[in-house]
Write a structure and sequence with these properties.
This protein is mainly α. It is built from three helices and no strands.
Amino acid sequence: DVGEKQFDHDYFKFRAAVKGLDRRLGSLLGSAFDDLDTMQLRLKLFDNFEGLIERPIIQAELEKKHKTLLRQYQQDLTKVETSFIENRDKVDQCFDDAPIY
C-alpha cells in the first residue's frame, strides 16, 4: 500500500541506529588513537579501518586526530634533522664506501 508509513518509520529508526553506531565507533577510534603512542601504530589504526573512516560522522570525529598525526610527523622529522646535523661530521665513511686502509 502506497499510504503505508511503516517502511518510512522503520527506515528512520534504522538510519538513526546507524548514525548512533557511527558516533560510537568514531569515539572508540579516537580513544584508540590516543592510547597509541607511535606514528606507525596510529597509521596502522587508520589503515585497518580505512573503509569506515570515510563515513562523514566518523571522519568528523577523527579530523582532530589527523592534525595530531601531522604534528607528530613534523616533530619526528625535526628530531631526525637535528640528529643528522649533530652527527654528520662524526661519520668517517658511508657504509657503501670501500674501506679505507
